[in-house]
Design brief:
CATH superfamily: Glycosidases
Structural class: alpha/beta
Largest sheet: 8 strands, parallel
Number of domains: 1
Strand content: 5-15%
InterPro entries: GH, Glyco_hydro_5, MAN-like
Bound molecules: 2-acetamido-2-deoxy-beta-D-glucopyranose
CATH class: Alpha Beta
Number of helices: 15
Family: Belongs to the glycosyl hydrolase 5 (cellulase A) family.
Region (Disordered): 298-343, 525-557
Main location: secreted
GO biological process, one term: mannan catabolic process
CATH topology: TIM Barrel
Radius of gyration: 23 Å
Distance between the termini: 32 Å
Shape: globular
């Protein structure tokens, strides 16, 4: 049924390959400048006068690769898979200068030093230059909410000797920590500033302490001015997943407005240094229903963005409204009523609900009255509806990682199997964010989404840890009846449905997490480190190096099918207009 609608939708799409002669006419029609830089108008992105919609991939580790050829080959492969935007890290903070590998900024005792040598910002120069060569745009992040240090702000598992961390790498059955830059959370970030400025050890000092704000303004100014004239920088992202809390806990006073205020300050700052590029947030997309806003919506809503006509039989949604607690509770109550009616009909006695292998109590009336869920009540100190309405924030962004975070509002059909519930939570999350974009008249991009598969479960390392649960090459116990993770087929189905929902709902960009690349050069102590051999010898370089897998890599995990699924679903965006 969905497939039929989908085909109708595809057929209805106007094919509009932009030829050079059409560029000026197109620009006039949309009332946008003919600019090689990405701009926005009426909820859409534009490049050279034409609408720009994209499906992209994440590869945070690009600048940490050991050779230019590796960066070149990786970007070529990404382009060949029909992605047009790559989200990657434009930061690499260290508190001790490493022997090997890339680093950009040394933060020590309140002093900042930039490395613009060949293992410093020249690496990022290469990434930008080679992305241009392959016709790829880059979404560049300035920092990360997450940068845990094992044994310092992250307790080690019992019996774990931190001195053995290096020796343990790559062996089976140990709680191995991975080399620096292997995980997305080992590139420094907010807590690296907090630790090395020596003040109060509270994560939110990063957002509210002027000394730390100044330090981060310095870094963003250096990076934004360095690439201000590069039109293949899609946009800046202030931070990956900014929120009140991290592995260094936040102060009791931290709330969404502190994080929003920081966004407003930094977005204005980056825009003043580099007026050519859009600035975005990078947050998880949490809502804060009924929370006081620093940037309240104007009473008269902006005109709705131009939309494709809905396929026959598809009801056009009424104009979206800002999310309220009473609306969320109403949705939850309706779901609860449907569930009760179903149970009554089937005479079923439901003892609990299984969500991704974890049992939670079944919904009772009392629970349905409890609240709106942590993704909707501001519990994380993020109010994505306040952030998107900051004038210097060019577009909305959100993420979707159901293995890590809870996005449910409690209005779920609990008769569905766990996978279908996860799928549905993602579809609801995408729909709500597409609606938020329409409400505020700005484009919205999903900047990262992924599901951990069963094959990938041994590699899965949550953002707030650096310690892999198993040795990297250990299989999960054979007798575990409900293995963690979905099948490859379920992953592909979820990616396909989420992308389609994003396109139909009105998202303007969708970025998968994450790209996998093989045949990379490895070097001890870098992101691509050689895996110790049985004899304990480590080859200095080998050309069979694989890009880091934190549980979301797809190399050897049905990569061809996964990419095919993404590529086919993304054709709904129409021909590449860039
Ligand atoms: C990329 O798109 C082209 C043209 O639509 C198509 O022929 C090709 O199969 C796609 N590549 C992949 C890896 O899906
Ligand atoms: C850190 O900086 C302060 C003030 O500049 C100085 O007094 C202190 O000696 C420094 N500490 C170290 C370990 O360098
Ligand atoms: C690894 O961690 C698990 C759980 O944290 C613990 O039970 C186990 O003993 C640890 N193994 C080693 C070798 O430290
Ligand atoms: C701000 O941070 C600096 C450096 O960490 C610290 O010395 C100062 O006490 C902090 N200010 C406040 C108000 O916490
Ligand atoms: C930021 O840059 C300014 C100007 O270059 C400099 O005076 C200041 O010391 C820098 N701040 C930090 C924390 O490095
Ligand atoms: C991160 O991990 C630390 C240590 O295990 C924990 O205290 C903290 O609550 C975690 N933070 C978040 C936001 O999950
Ligand atoms: C956090 O935001 C609240 C609400 O605007 C404000 O009252 C408070 O002073 C802020 N905290 C800091 C440390 O700036
Ligand atoms: C769960 O999702 C799969 C894949 O989309 C679908 O084939 C199946 O019918 C769904 N199950 C239920 C009970 O909805
Ligand atoms: C690690 O485990 C795999 C099977 O899970 C096995 O093939 C490999 O030989 C083991 N490696 C070591 C160093 O024990
Ligand atoms: C799996 O097997 C191990 C070793 O035989 C045993 O200790 C464990 O309890 C079993 N787990 C389950 C879930 O059956
Ligand atoms: C692996 O990379 C090297 C160096 O970039 C290149 O010469 C070689 O052709 C690549 N091999 C494969 C199989 O891609
Ligand atoms: C750095 O690389 C060299 C080889 O080029 C290696 O001998 C050395 O052990 C590495 N250092 C670290 C800390 O990994």
């Amino acid at each position: 049924m969905f497939l039929v609608l989908w085909q109708l939708f595809l057929a209805a799409l106007a094919v509009s390959a932009a030829s050079p002669t059409q560029t000026i006419r197109e620009a006039k029609r949309h009332n946008v400048p003919v600019s090689p830089f990405v701009t926005t108008r009426d909820g859409q992105f534009f490049v050279n006068g034409s609408v720009f919609k994209f499906v992209g991939t994440n590869a945070y580790w690009l600048h940490a690769l050991n050779t230019d050829e590796d960066i070149d080959n990786t970007l070529a492969a990404i382009r060949a898979a029909n992605f047009t935007v790559v989200r990657t890290w434009a930061f690499n903070d260290v508190d001790t200068i490493p022997e090997n590998g890339t680093w950009f900024q040394h933060i020590s005792n309140g002093t900042l030093t930039i490395n613009d040598g060949p293992n410093g910002l020249q690496k990022l120069d290469k990434v930008v230059e080679l992305a241009q060569k392959h016709g790829l745009y880059l979404l560049l992040s300035f920092t990360n909410n997450w940068s845990p240090i094992p044994g310092i702000d992250q307790p080690l598992p019992p019996g774990f000797n931190p001195l053995q961390i290096r020796q343990l790498q790559g062996t089976n059955g140990t709680n191995a920590t991975l080399p620096r830059n292997a995980l997305s959370n080992s590139y420094g970030g907010m807590d690296t500033y907090v630790r090395n400025f020596g003040g109060k050890q509270e994560h939110d000092q990063f957002y509210t302490n002027q000394t730390l704000i100044n330090a981060f303004m310095n870094y963003t100014a250096i990076i934004a001015s360095r690439y201000a004239n590069h039109s293949n920088v899609f946009a800046w992202e202030l931070a990956n997943d900014p929120r009140c809390n991290s592995s260094i806990p936040n102060s009791a006073g931290c709330e969404a407005r502190n994080v929003t205020r920081w966004h407003a300050t930094l977005a204005a700052h980056v825009q003043s240094v580099d007026p050519n590029h859009l600035v975005s947030s990078g947050n998880q997309g949490y809502f804060c229903a009924d929370c006081p806003k620093l940037f309240p919506r104007q009473v008269a809503p902006p005109p709705p963005p131009p939309q494709h006509s809905p396929a026959p039989g598809v009801r056009r949604r009424s104009a979206p409204e800002p999310l309220t607690r009473s609306q969320l509770l109403k949705e939850r109550k309706a779901a609860w009523k449907r569930e009760r009616a179903r149970q009554k009909r089937s005479g079923e006695l439901i003892g609990g609900v299984k969500i991704r292998g974890r049992w939670t109590a079944s919904q009772t009336k009392r629970q349905s009255d409890l609240g709106t869920g942590s993704a909707f009540d501001g519990a994380h100190g993020v109010d994505s509806e306040d952030i998107i309405n900051i004038p210097q924030i060019g577009f909305g962004s959100f993420q979707l990682f159901p293995d890590q975070f809870d996005y449910s509002s409690g209005a779920l059909d609990t008769s569905l199997p766990p996978f279908n519930q996860t799928l549905q939570i993602g579809l609801d999350w995408i729909r709500r964010h597409a609606e938020a974009g329409q409400l505020f008249g700005k484009p919205v991009s999903l900047t990262g989404f992924g599901l951990v598969t069963r094959d990938n479960a041994p590699f899965f390392v949550p953002f707030n840890t650096t310690i892999a649960p198993f040795g990297p090459d250990q299989a999960p116990p054979a007798n575990v009846t409900q293995p963690f993770g979905v099948t490859d087929e379920q992953r592909d189905e979820a990616y396909r449905q989420w992308i389609q929902a994003g396109i139909l709902g009105g998202l303007q960009g969708i970025i998968q997490y994450q790209w996998s690349q093989s045949n990379l050069t490895s070097l001890q102590g870098s992101a691509i480190s050689p895996v110790p051999t049985e004899s304990g010898q480590t080859p200095l370089t080998d050309t069979s190096g694989m890009s880091p897998n934190d549980g979301y890599g797809i190399l050897g995990q049905g990569q061809t099918d996964a990419l095919q699924s993404i590529s086919v679903a993304s054709q709904g965006f129409g021909p590449d207009s860039a």
